[in-house]
Amino acid sequence: MSTRPDPHAPGLRGAIERRSAVPVVFLHRLPVWVPLLAVFALLAVGMAGTGWVAAAALGVLALLLAWFAYLNWPALRIGGRALRIAAITVLVVSAAGRLLG
């Protein structure tokens, strides 16, 4: 199964895939260490920090993971889908915990 966007995909999925093409290509052209460093920085701020700053860092990380999971969902097997749902859930619960104290 291909993960390339279908230019003729109908509805919301097609619109999101078309809108995501430019940012995904931009991220792909970056050196590998730049997105990796950004993810580690967001995770470090989220885990070490407190309050709304930590919650925002974990929230951004959850949104990025959800975006990539949505784009790759058709190509994922059940195990990959379950892991992505679990990771997003852990990030959202951790962000809520940081925000609520």
Describe the structure.
With 101 residues, the protein is mostly helical. The protein has helices at residues 11-29, 33-48, 51-72, 78-100. The protein has 4 helices and no strands. The longest helix has 23 residues, at 78-100.
Defining key terms:
101 residues, mainly alpha
Q: Would you count the extended β strands for me?
A: 0
Major beta-sheet overview = none
Helix content: over 70%
Radius of gyration: 15 Å
Number of helices: 4
By helix and strand content, what is the structural category? mainly alpha
The proportion of residues in beta strands is: under 5%
Overall residue-averaged pLDDT value: 90
Which spans have pLDDT < 50 for at least 5 consecutive residues? Answer: none
Write the element-wise H/E pattern from the N-terminal end onward: HHHH
In angstroms, what separates the terminal alpha carbons?
Answer: 43 Å
| Gross geometry | globular
Q: What would a concise description of this structure say?
A:
It contains four helices and no strands. The protein is an all-alpha fold.
Helix and strand topology:
Elements: H1 11-29, H2 33-48, H3 51-72, H4 78-100
Helix pairs in contact: 2-3, 3-4
